[in-house]
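Hey everyone, long-time lurker, first post.

I ran two proteins through the pipeline my lab uses and got sequence/structure pairs for each. Pasting them in order. The first:
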Amino acid sequence: MLVREPRPEPIPGKIGVLFSDEFRGFLYERRQGPPGEPPRGIGVPLVIGEPSVGLIREALGLLFSNVVEVSSVEAEGDHVGVIVPSIFSVDYTVLRTRVEVVYRFTLHRPSGEPVASWSITGVGLSPRLDDFGLALVSDRVRQCLALSMRDAAWNFTSGFSEQPAVRRWLEEHGLR
């Protein structure tokens, strides 16, 4: 659940969101070993795509009064624009379990023309090894991943209108 107080006042209008197949199916697997050499093992696989779809839907639902999934950046109908998220990077450390996920968002006009593109980072942190009880390392990493994704979604929601190009776009549409 993403809701925090204070909630932003929803922006009137219909926004489209385009989740690519690559985004939906994103799975992070860190291979361990020196660059250029065969990996010695595989780190904790992290399913990020589908859970991110849900969080971003929720975040956009807090931002806009009407959110619909679209299949193209060229929106048909009365959309004010289309947002396309992507997963830019993921990393984690195990000792003091920390997961960082960076999303990239691109806002398009209904014509498909890009308006703004920016990155949002989320961090999930467990400062001590026993913060999640006697959980396996993989469970601690996954729990910190969930925290980092929620942090990124909240950062997206709370900072959306702070992006200069987004602010101009909102003003052009009389939305803020």
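...and the second, right after it:
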Amino acid sequence: MLTVILALSNMTVFATENSEEDTSAGKETVSVTIDTSLFYYNNFDNDAYRNVYDQLKDAASNFHNSTQNAEYREDSNGPYYKAFTINVTSKNWDVIGASGMQTIVNAFLADNPTYFWMSPSFKHATKSLDDSSVCYEVQILCYDDYANGSSRQVIKNNVDITISNYVKNLEENLPDYQKEYLIHNAIIDNTFFLIRKVKTQTPALPGHIASMASLIPNIKRQHPLDMQKKHLSPLWMN
């Protein structure tokens, strides 16, 4: 289990044309060049991928801003929590397939770290429609810790307040994306992680003692999908 602790500070974040430290004011100024082409969405050159990504984005936003509980379900692989479903047309599915759907989910999470509750895992099956056509129902999964909608909203609101406090300390004339970039870095610099191994049948991480929590520097700069590969699960605590 991964415990993420946000240090709520009065840190001021500035962006100027230089990167020198203003020692007299005790504040650091930074210069940032933003390359919006790095959004994974903008690197999709196929309409099918973009269409499904947009479906995922709309549904995820609705769930994120609600107090809806994730639905408990079980299948042959065990229990899980379903956040929501999207119906992908056969036309789009024929292009992307299951591997493409995974690519879309990964891209969405990379572009939208706000959705802390969303698992990279998903389930899919064919679904018959009223007009006798077929689509593919994709279930997007929610981490167990965030299945309760009311608890999830408390965490979301606390994160929103933290980000809002950072925004107040940013220069007003900065582009929105540059503000997001600076807030992202400010949160990273004020976040540390306590790691406990999630129960798994795979071997423990090298040097890891499963019964102990250990501080792991630099993991906060790892992608969530990389952490999942190491069988680490995120849990935000405020």
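Reply from user beta_strand_b:
Welcome! Quick read of the second one: Residues 86 and 187 are 32 Å apart (CA to CA). The chain has five helices and eleven strands.
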